[in-house]
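Here is one chain, start to finish.
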Amino acid sequence: MTGATRPGDIRGGISVRHSAISGALLGVALMAAIDEIVFHQILGWHHFYDRSTPAVGLASDGLLHTAELLVLVAGFALLADVRRRHALAVRHFCAALLMGAGGFQLFDGLVNHKVFRVHQIRYDVDVWPYDLAWIAGALVFLVAGAILWWSARRNVRTTGLSDG
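Its structure:
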């Protein structure tokens, strides 16, 4: 079917899909940047990969920073395109931003810290309070994003108006 849009993609000239993708990318990149700047650089609590030498840990931080910057550029490029077309779904973008940040944080806390054990938040302390705070923060971002997403979708369905 040529020229057809997926349900929920374009509503009244607003691109929910592209707004959400840009928000999710920026949420992931911003949370990765906060993690890397605060915990890796300022506090020096860990490196991205701590199961080797300090030099390897520092190199792994550089690779994380490179990936974070690439995702940040991609998110901003998509956001700029959506804004240029006057198609930004603001509430969907903000919801996806929160969910992207929470998703990164949850993945980091569960997969990187517990499953693969590439690093811990801190060493030589009881890590459970840190783990619980990290995962609770992730859940706060995810729940807030989900509530905002639901609210934005409900507003579009009940009023027929976009959230832009």
